[in-house]
Every structure is written in structure tokens, then in C-alpha cells.
User: Fold these one by one.
Assistant:
Number 1:
Amino acid sequence: MTTYLTRLGTGFDVHAFTEGDHVWLGGIRIPADRGVLAHSDGDVALHALTDALLGAIADGDIGTHFPPSDEQWRGASSDRFLAHACDLVRARGGKIDHLDITVLAEAPRIGAHREAIRARIAEIANVPLTSVSIKATTTEKLGFVGRAEGLAAQAAATVRLPEIDLATADETAERRS
Ligand code: MG
């Protein structure tokens, strides 16, 4: 029987606002009175979540896998980043148990888009809807978020990985001997 170890990874991302008429958030295009300055589509929720998954498997960060200096990622749709991180977890025999995101922004408000975002993330990550949570908060007008200079997201990803690495195998052998 395979023994699984639970791993929790966290991620954080920020993008500045600029002129525009929409913001990508959690894989959903949300109409807004501004846009986001970014090399990719600037989806802070998917970027934070991608980093959380990479953190759970200790495999670098979004910049390691998708360097901003690489022209092929200019304007890239961030669902590709999230899908890649999910693929890396599953390539190790891992299971994605839960994805939890908090968006920090004065605007846009996500309430009306919450279920669409959950459904989109569940689709990209190929997990049940009940395994995806998205929450939002303002920062009470404080800091760069409060001044509406940009928005941020933090995320946590809980995954299970099979206990197969050599160090662990050695420890187990020692305990038995
Ligand atoms: Mg980013």
C-alpha cells in the first residue's frame, strides 16, 4: 500500500494596475475600470496558486518554469501555468487535495464571479469544485492595495505525495533494523 505524505505549499503574487477595461482573476475575465500591468495576463490568483503547487512539491517557482525574459510567455494565458504545476504534482504520483486562494483588492469585487472562478480553477486543475475555495478582502484602504495601485493574491495548495524518496526509504529501513 502506498503511503502518502501531506504537503502544504503557499504562494503570493502582486500586479500593478494600469489603464484598461478588464482584469483576469482565477481564469475569468472580469470587466473593470482598469487593467493589470503584466508580462502574461497578470492573473494574480492563478500565479499565487501555481506557486503554491510548486511549493508543495519543492520545485522552484513560476519564474523558474516560465521565465518572464522568455518572449514565448508574453501575454500568456495563466491557465497554462496552473495546468503545468498540476501536471508536475501528478507526474510524481501526487494527489491535489485542496486549493485555497485569497484575493486582496479594493476592486474589482469578485462576489458575482466567485462560482465561475471556482468552476474554472476546478476545470484547469481537474479537481472537484468542493476542493477549490476563493475568498476576497480589502486592506481597509491601507498600503498599495488600499490605494488601489494594484492587487494581490495569496494561495495555499494541499497535496499528497507518495512516500518513495530514498532518504525516507533509508529512514524506514533504519527504524525496522
Ligand atoms: Mg504574477
Number 2:
Amino acid sequence: MALLEIKTAGDPVLKTVCTPVDKITKRLRKLLDDMAETMYASDGVGIAAPQVGESIRVCVVDVDKKNRYDLINPVITWREGSVVDNEGCLSCPQLFGDVERAEKIRVEYTSRFGKKKTLEADGLLARCIQHEVDHLDGQLFIDIAKNITKGDKPNRKRDA
Ligand code: ZN
């Protein structure tokens, strides 16, 4: 595995709508592993392909360092409730802000082995998946956050 360079706000790749993956290859699985390693090394809870310069619809999330999800072509098909919480982003160093997200979601995706999957999530996992899917649509959290602050620490550590 290898650490990848994280693109930061201002890089056009982060504003580009990503292309769906049509074929799961060995190269794609290596990219997912490298993205995960990069995310863990940066103490993040999620990472999307455009953050490492790849404009394709894949992301990796792991909010408890125990359950890693590799999401290929994720589509959020159901949302319920609304909750505001503080977020950060590996591509927006030292920026934190409050973002309103659905409280619960259902996401359909393809696994790294090509299986169609459905995941229901709430709490931080739901927030993180919504943040990453926004990345795949070229949207950064700072585009929608309120009360943005600059500093070394958020209210709670949850960079994605
Ligand atoms: Zn992010």
C-alpha cells in the first residue's frame, strides 16, 4: 500500500462531478487500499477518490477504526431526520463548521468484490457517508457549512 497526496480546496478536481465506475479492477482495489491507508495516516474517518486526484465515484469510510466500508458508486436512496454537527475535511485543513445532514440514511453501493449492497446508517457513519457522496458531486463541506472556524481542533475530531 502507499500513501497518496491529499488534494486541498482550490484544486479543480475537488469541484468536478465524478464518473461512475463501470469495472472493478485490481487497480481499483489497490486505489481503495491506498485511500484507506492515507485516511488512517491522516486520522480521518472518510476519504473520497477526488481527494486523491481520481475523479471516480468511490469512497472509503471507517468511523470507529473497526468497520471499513469501501463504497463504489454509492447512491443515497433514503434520508430521514435532520441533525446539525461540526465537521472537518482532510482537503480543508484547519477548517471546521456546522453542517445540517440527514440523521439516518440508506445507501446502495457496489462492494470491492462487485456485490450490490445496501447499508442503513445513522450517527457519525451517516454523516460521513453524506460528506463523501458530496465530494463525488464536486461539493465541499465548506460550501454548505455555517459558523466556519479556523484552528487546530474541532469541537470533535471528525475529518473526512
Ligand atoms: Zn471531505
